[in-house]
């Protein structure tokens, strides 16, 4: 607006003409007879109104008088999107005030949701049971299904599992006792022995789970698989399913490439009419929020998906992901029979989605069916090794979990279908009572929702053989540890529900395994510290050969290195035999897509060595996570990285210098006390001292590509990618190079982006004087301060409120005191911000 000749209305029409598709309409804007003596008249003329009409209808159109720019929203959009139109008439319409609005969600059908209070005190629960029994009101657990033979089978299997775990642990404990110099009689040795038993039982549980999974997959047929009785039955028209994609400050291109690939795959099956997709955003960054709306509009226009793909961004972001699901259930849950929850990096084939609905239709007492997602899509060396591990070893553990749990299985929070009616009735989460870091909103909601679903009598199953479900792994060690810190805090909180009333014993065990998956780290750390302390005691103190008074013969300390080697070998066998069995299973089923028989074996060996290097590093990090969570330190729940990002040397040093120092000091101390013992401890201390280069180098994409060329860590999803993944990658490449969305300043200033933002605004307020005055104050302040003077929360409020966004646009152009940065940032050259197409 530096030209002395051009008026604001002239510049405004020039900018609008830049976006106009029709040449004749562009000519009329530039040389036509529009009323251009002021901005209000211009907007009225664009909207087909006159000042006399506005004055005569002041009572009926009070919104228009207070918001002149709103009158032209529809015209601005029609000029920019003439052919094809921005949206069909059912999606783009006018509200009661005559202002153009773009419909982003279906009509609401509200349902009341009421979470039940938690009862976590075991003594209170026992007292209540005793009181019911004393009053003659004690009833046995209700049987959900009269012919559920799987329950008896599952109960018998679990008793066998307990016998195997504890029997094996007792034998190992006896061997460990003979290894200790005092035969396990000293207090320090008793503590070490107790920790060993607990940790060995944890290793044993994983071993027997993987072993039974191996036999389950080897024989192929499973009469208790959830899909064993399901054919290709047509889906009932009433069985509508909502695909929910909760997101928060995610990589927009990756999210919508995955959603679009999933929808296209679903349409190829011919069953897409049974599904709707909801993008449920909790994004707090205004620029990312704008990108989300542009990506949603572009996808709907390309695929003609208005009325099938919806977008909602919450203004009140509570309870994180579970709160987003609650919000959907409260507004639209009554319209659907099922919901299928996806993560931001999830991709699912149409065949897989259809199969899940068919399973639900056949099994009327099933509440949740969890798929076994396959990891793919990463290029970093670290992520490729993790993808290989989950693809080769993961099926054994997933099949083993199904073998022991059957209809009382895990739910991992995504890539799973849920029956909505019981979920809405029984699985809405109340905050944990009390104060401190272990109370308040439940963070890891998935295990809890599965436990509540089972408590209500509905089955929770794993469809471990179902193909077509995919996810992505963290690209490097630091991103994985950042995720683990969140999960650690959530699992520690969940264990408070271990004694909650009515929880099935299997799901109590799930809470326990969730706890042990992180608590095992500080236990291992304590075990190693006490073992080192025991060495120090025997090195620096005089042995007591007569520990009890009156003894005639001395008790000589005995070290049994051969027994120690044998015990170490047994433990290593429990840890690594499942990996070897996984390779054997790949050989039997065909190893060509894994790089060949020798390559898959070499990949397993290299991955195992790499896991050994990382185990002590993870141990120290997880120990710190447990301690900081229990001490109440805040945890930032940021979205994980969706990029193939390398770890810089600076980040690696910053994250791992303390582990390196601990390893060096530990090794030096043990060498001073007993050099021979250092050989036993070398896998731990050497790994810690190498943590910096291992973390940095393993994150390299270049090394990941090199390993791919050498056919190492290959998975079928890389060798022969499924169609839905190929389409996702193609869309992601095109979106990363072709997708462009305006900034907040451009949305406020540029005529067409502002019209889009105004039409998308979802806030609705009764027009009363306090609200009108508050809006005027905020708009006036924003105009004078410029975009840099607005906080992220203020920008989000403007994006949510169509009236404030339109008024801001009007006053920026009409107020001579408007901050100069609005036009510097809001009109960057003559680039167009039309919605891109990726058809």
From TrEMBL:
Pathway(s) this gene product operates in, as recorded in its UniProt entry: Glycan metabolism; osmoregulated periplasmic glucan (OPG) biosynthesis
Bilayer disposition of the protein: Multi-pass membrane protein
Highest rank taxon of the organism: Bacteria
Source organism of this protein record: Vreelandella neptunia
EC number(s) given by UniProt: 2.4.1.-
Gene name of the encoded protein: mdoH
Location(s), subcellular: Cell inner membrane; Cell membrane
Limits of the Glycosyltransferase 2-like domain: 244-423
Protein name: Glucans biosynthesis glucosyltransferase H
HAMAP family named among the record's database cross-references: MdoH_OpgH
Family membership: Belongs to the glycosyltransferase 2 family. OpgH subfamily.
């Amino acid at each position: 607006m530096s030209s002395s000749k051009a008026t604001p209305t002239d510049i405004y029409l020039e900018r609008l003409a830049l976006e106009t598709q029709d040449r004749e309409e562009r000519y009329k804007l530039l040389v036509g007879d529009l009323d251009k003596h002021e901005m209000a008249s211009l907007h009225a003329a664009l909207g087909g109104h006159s000042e006399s009409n506005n004055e005569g209808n002041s009572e009926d159109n009070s919104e228009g008088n207070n918001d002149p720019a709103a009158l032209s929203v529809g015209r601005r959009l029609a000029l920019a999107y003439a052919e094809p139109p921005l949206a069909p008439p059912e999606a783009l319409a006018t509200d009661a005030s005559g202002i153009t609005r773009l419909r982003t969600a279906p009509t609401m059908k509200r349902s009341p949701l009421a979470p039940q209070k938690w009862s976590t005190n075991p003594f209170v629960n026992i007292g209540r049971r005793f009181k019911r029994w004393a009053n003659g009101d004690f009833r046995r657990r209700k049987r959900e299904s009269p012919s559920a033979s799987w329950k008896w089978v599952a109960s018998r299997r679990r008793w066998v599992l307990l016998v195997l775990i504890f029997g094996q642990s007792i034998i190992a404990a006896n061997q460990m006792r003979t290894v200790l110099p005092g035969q396990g009689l000293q207090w320090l040795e008793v503590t070490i022995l107790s920790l060993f038993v607990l940790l060995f039982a944890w290793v044993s549980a994983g071993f027997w789970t993987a072993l039974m999974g191996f036999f389950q997959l080897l024989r192929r047929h499973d009469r208790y698989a959830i899909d064993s009785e399901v054919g290709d039955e047509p889906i009932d028209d009433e069985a509508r399913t909502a695909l929910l994609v909760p997101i928060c400050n995610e990589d927009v291109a990756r999210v919508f490439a995955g959603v679009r690939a999933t929808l296209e795959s679903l349409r190829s099956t011919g069953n897409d009419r049974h599904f709707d997709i909801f993008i449920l955003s909790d994004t707090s960054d205004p620029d990312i929020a704008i990108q989300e709306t542009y990506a949603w509009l572009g996808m709907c226009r390309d695929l003609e998906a208005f009325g099938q793909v919806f977008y909602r961004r919450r203004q009140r972001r509570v309870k994180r992901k579970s709160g987003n699901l609650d919000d959907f259930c409260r507004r639209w849950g009554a319209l659907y029979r099922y919901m299928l929850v996806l993560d931001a990096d999830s991709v699912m084939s149409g065949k897989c989605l259809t199969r899940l609905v068919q399973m639900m239709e056949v099994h009327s007492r099933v509440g949740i069916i969890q798929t076994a997602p396959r990891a793919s899509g990463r290029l970093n060396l670290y992520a490729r090794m993790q993808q290989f591990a989950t693809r080769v070893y993961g099926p054994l553990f997933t099949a083993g979990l199904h073998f022991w749990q059957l209809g009382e299985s895990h739910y991992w929070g995504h890539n799973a279908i849920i029956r909505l009616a019981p979920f809405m009735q029984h699985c809405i989460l109340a905050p944990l009572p009390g104060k401190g870091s272990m109370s308040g909103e439940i963070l890891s909601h998935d295990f809890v929702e599965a436990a509540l679903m089972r408590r209500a009598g509905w089955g929770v199953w794993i469809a471990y053989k179902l193909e077509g479900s995919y996810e992505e792994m963290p690209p490097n060690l630091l991103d994985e540890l950042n995720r683990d810190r969140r999960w650690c805090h959530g699992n520690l909180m969940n264990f408070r529900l271990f004694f909650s009333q009515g929880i099935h014993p299997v799901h109590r065990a799930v809470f326990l395994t969730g706890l042990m998956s992180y608590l095992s780290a500080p236990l291992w750390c304590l075990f190693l510290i006490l073992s080192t302390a025991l060495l120090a005691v025997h090195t620096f103190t005089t042995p007591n050969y007569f520990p009890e008074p009156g003894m005639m013969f001395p008790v000589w300390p005995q070290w049994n290195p051969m027994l120690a080697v044998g015990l170490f070998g047994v433990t290593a066998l429990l840890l690594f035999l499942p990996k070897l069995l996984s390779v054997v299973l790949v050989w039997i089923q065909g190893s060509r897509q894994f790089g060949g028989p020798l390559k898959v074996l070499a990949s397993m060996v290299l991955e195992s060595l790499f896991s050994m290097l990382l185990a002590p590093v993870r141990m120290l990090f997880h120990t710190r996570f447990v301690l900081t969570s229990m001490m109440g330190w805040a945890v930032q729940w940021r979205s994980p990285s969706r990029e193939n990002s390398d770890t810089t040397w600076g980040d690696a040093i910053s994250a791992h210098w303390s582990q390196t120092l601990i390893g060096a000091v530990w090794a030096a101390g043990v060498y001073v006390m007993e050099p021979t013992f250092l050989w036993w401890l070398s896998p731990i201390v050497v790994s810690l001292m190498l943590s910096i280069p291992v973390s940095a180098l393993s994150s390299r994409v270049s090394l990941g590509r090199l390993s791919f060329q050498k056919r190492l860590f290959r998975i079928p999803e890389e060798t022969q990618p499924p169609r839905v993944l190929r389409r996702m990658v193609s869309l992601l490449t095109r979106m990363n190079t072709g997708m462009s969305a305006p900034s907040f300043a451009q949305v406020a200033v540029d005529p067409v982006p502002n019209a889009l933002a105004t039409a998308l605004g979802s806030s609705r307020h009764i027009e009363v004087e306090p609200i009108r005055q508050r809006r005027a104050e905020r708009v006036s302040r924003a105009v004078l301060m410029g975009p840099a003077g607005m906080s992220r929360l203020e920008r989000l409020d403007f994006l949510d409120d169509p009236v404030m966004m339109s008024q801001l646009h009007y006053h920026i152009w009409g107020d001579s005191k408007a901050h100069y940065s609005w036009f510097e940032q809001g009109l960057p050259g003559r680039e167009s911000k039309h919605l891109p197409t990726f058809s």
